[in-house]
Specification:
One of its GO terms (cellular component) is membrane. Its main location: membrane. It is a multi-pass membrane protein. It comes from Gordonia bronchialis (strain ATCC 25592 / DSM 43247 / BCRC 13721 / JCM 3198 / KCTC 3076 / NBRC 16047 / NCTC 10667) (Rhodococcus bronchialis). Pfam families: FUSC_2. With about 375 residues, this protein is mainly α. The protein folds into two domains: about 140 residues, no CATH class; about 200 residues, Methane Monooxygenase Hydroxylase, Chain G, domain 1 (Up-down Bundle). Helices cover about 80% and strands about 0% of the residues. Helix 2 packs across helix 3, helix 3 runs parallel beside helix 7 and helix 9 runs antiparallel to helix 12. The chain starts with a helix and ends with a helix.
């Protein structure tokens, strides 16, 4: 059944597949937000006897969000911003009354206080919106404003508890993100090898465009890696996964650098093809081998502990490519081909670091 669904999924248009994949990856955070919102409302009404505690579910949803990163930070900023906005708004409106110019002043004042106290992006927005709420809907001087601050605290705490007790697997998203980036560059390397072998400018340009289009995925990967580290710190269920999350997170910079180096390689290759300059077959073979290197690193990312390929398998393949990419290969070459090999060797260092090697050891392998 799973294979049938996968085959059907692959027949769908690419934009629709992307939307379905995005929804699938967000199902757990959406469930967390929904459960946290309902629980926060119930606690505020049943335990604290607050009337219409709308801030509680709002705070729970904002503190969790769909992004895994900085959830604790968001919760603190949310509660802090609401508290600042309510206090500033209550003090100001109780003295001068409510009206158009009062709203202008109280929102500016609350946001200014929030910015002065903290540089987070969420706290001034929450302070301003809470101050506006006090100035327009909540009677100053009563307990309603205080109740709203408590509701925000309830929602923030419930959000953190739901995130800790019903967490997203901190490794799954990060692994999937990294594997997706590596798969994209793998395909780009295949296009590049074909383009260099046939002199097809369109193939080389397609490789360059594919590599250029990875930045959004890389940013998502970094965000999910930060979120994974946070989940592994907060959730008792994943305390034992901290070391694994750290190892996965350590690949973020090497993957990013590898993609950047590949873009440079593709640009240099495009220039050579456009000028009609041949590239020696040994160099094209190395570029083709890079596709295999990206693929084994992708498989390594998706493999569970104890499964193959592992870091040792990936390193073994990369060492084989390094032996082909010796500096002597371009001893009699022109400057552009020498620069192309230099970028390939730099890329190999990044890939060996993705496979777990230290930078110094990876550089030493090139000698």
């Amino acid at each position: 059944m799973t294979s049938r669904l996968r085959k059907y999924f692959n027949t769908l248009p690419a934009p629709l597949r992307q939307r379905i994949r995005r929804l699938w990856l967000s199902l757990v955070p959406i469930t967390q937000c929904a459960l946290a919102a309902g629980t926060a409302w119930w606690v505020a009404v049943q335990v604290f006897d607050h009337e219409l505690p709308f801030f509680a579910p709002i705070a729970a949803v904002i503190s969790l969000g769909l992004s895994l990163s900085q959830r604790w930070r968001r919760s603190v900023e949310l509660v802090g911003g609401v508290t600042i906005g309510i206090l500033v708004g209550d003090l100001f409106i109780s003295q001068v009354g409510s009206g158009t110019w009062q709203i202008v002043v109280v929102v500016a004042l609350a946001m200014a206080v929030a910015v002065f106290l903290d540089d987070g992006p969420l706290i001034p927005m929450q302070a301003g919106s809470s101050a506006a709420l006090v100035a327009t809907l909540l009677p100053p001087g009563g307990i309603a404003g205080f109740h709203r601050a408590i509701d925000a605290l309830i929602g923030g705490v419930i959000g953190i508890l739901v995130g800790a007790l019903l967490p997203v697997n901190p490794a799954s998203r990060a692994r999937r993100d990294a594997a997706g980036v590596l798969a994209t560059v793998r395909d780009a390397a295949r296009h590049l090898a074909v383009g260099l072998r046939t002199g097809d400018e369109k193939e080389v340009f397609a490789a360059l465009e594919a590599a250029r289009g990875t930045q959004g995925a890389i940013n998502t990967m970094r965000s999910d890696m930060r979120g994974g580290r946070e989940v592994s710190r907060v959730s008792p269920l994943y305390w034992g996964s901290r070391m694994r999350i750290q190892r996965i997170s350590a690949t973020a910079d090497p993957i990013d650098n590898a993609v950047r180096n590949f873009r440079i390689i593709a640009r240099r290759a495009l220039g050579k093809v456009q000028r009609g300059e041949p590239v020696r077959p040994e160099m094209i073979e190395i570029v083709s081998d890079l596709a295999g290197a990206f693929e084994i690193l992708r498989e390594m990312m998706m493999a569970d502990p104890g499964e193959e390929p592992d870091e040792t398998d990936a390193t073994r393949l990369l060492r084989t490519i390094v032996r082909k990419a010796r500096a002597e290969l371009v001893a009699d070459a022109d400057l552009s081909e020498t620069a192309l090999l230099a970028e390939i060797r730099s890329l190999l260092v990044d890939l060996m670091m993705v496979a777990g090697m230290r930078r110094a050891s990876a550089i030493a392998t090139l000698r």
